[in-house]
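Hey, resending since the last one bounced:
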Amino acid sequence: MAQKITTSVNSLVAKANAQVTTISVKDALELFDKDDHVFIDLRDIREINRSGKIPGAFSCPRGMLEFWIDPASPYHKEVFNQDKTYVFYCAAGWRSALSAQTAKDMGLGPVCHIDGGFSEWSASENPVEKQESRLKP
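The structure tokens again:
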């Protein structure tokens, strides 16, 4: 028998967006070179290799977020142990909404995410840092 999904991804994203701060690309552009903000790129390394990233952003694959945030985790990353605002982004703003909610629920804060994600950022012709591929062809 097929699974009956009771909560759609659109519902999860809408719930997250209702609970976290969402900022525009224009607002993000004003923040991206500020020392009191950390941009977190949640996209897969293949996405970053293909299209680049916001300059200075820290790459955190979505699947590792909780493990890298938690200081009790053996996978913890010190980037998540700063007194700064965390600006999450992904390709379109769905993963980043869920991630910002998760980070907030874990106690990380303040957090926000970029509406429209990296797609909107790059379409607006904002600075993009090209990434050298670490994957072998």
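The mean pLDDT is 95.

Sorry for the duplicate.
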